[in-house]
Amino acid sequence: MKVKHNKKRNTAFVYEALINEATVAVLKDDHKRSKKAVDLVRKHFSSDSNLKRDLECYRSLYENQNLDIEISKQILKEANISKRLIDPVGLFDEQTDIINDVNKNLSPSVFNNFVPNYKSLATINKMFNTTSPKEKVILESKIVENMSTSSELDHEHPVVDNLVYKTFVDKFNKKYQDDLLEEQKYLLSHYISSFADNSIELKIFLNEEIGRLKEKLEEAKNLDEIKTDASMSDKTEMIISKLNSYSKETISENVIMTVLKTQQLVKEIHEDGSSS
């Protein structure tokens, strides 16, 4: 008998749906709702929870791409072992708790949120829960195939649909519309995922990206159109100084917006400089 997928009992789906909820709330300036979603993630996916252990089993299978087939099979084997070590009763109770918390503190509509890798999560869920040897082998084969196939999407960065990008871009500059630079996409992706990992990955990326931007701005100071224009030279120095100050600031939406604008500015400066 085939296993029916219950997405509310799919730990990874619930996690991704909550991250999506927090993201959309930020974009709508509904910071109260965003905080509720983030608080639920932090409450239920703490390091000692069964939900966190279960999530890691899923993530080891859907976040790894373009791997050697044998390595994919080994990861799958270890994920199955780790999954079996999780207390099923404890996990079920924690899933019930988070479902109730979402319904009470947010809305049942959260479970209808768009999750880009939904099919992969459903396949993994069915594989973990089936008792049919034949179906398990078929599902495992699909998972290994997904892990060893290069995806069109960049799996080093969280997936964000075009509507999310467009909404965020519209907030800081109408003219960009949905035409984002790759570095802007990476920054937005890390910002969105920071709700769940206490901004660890975002801080690492921002540190590297701000360093790159400062280096590019220092180079720009030597361009004729800047060094011969006192106003432009002063503004360039001000931007560099602003970027330097972020090492002492808490990461906020304003910080993200400034870096996004600086990324666009650096791109435009160096394109103009190379064409002149």
Distance between the termini: 68 Å
Count the strands?
Answer: 0
Overall residue-averaged pLDDT value: 82
User: Tally the helices: what do you get?
Assistant: 13
SSE string, helices as H and strands as E:
HHHHHHHHHHHHH
Helix content: over 70%
The total number of structural domains is 2
Secondary-structure topology with pairs:
Blueprint: H1 11-27, H2 31-44, H3 50-62, H4 69-84, H5 88-105, H6 118-129, H7 133-147, H8 162-172, H9 182-197, H10 200-220, H11 224-227, H12 230-245, H13 253-275
Helix pairs in contact: 1-2, 1-9, 2-5, 3-4, 4-7, 6-7, 9-10, 9-13, 10-12, 10-13
If you had to describe this structure to a student in words, what would you say it looks like?
- 71% of the residues lie in helices and 0% in strands.
- It is an all-alpha fold and 276 residues long.
- It has two domains: 7-147, no CATH class; 162-275.
- Helix 1 packs antiparallel against helix 2 (31-44), helix 1 (11-27) packs across helix 9 (182-197) and helix 10 runs parallel beside helix 13 (253-275).
- The protein is elongated and about 75 Å long.
- Residues 151-160 and 172-177 have low confidence and may be disordered.
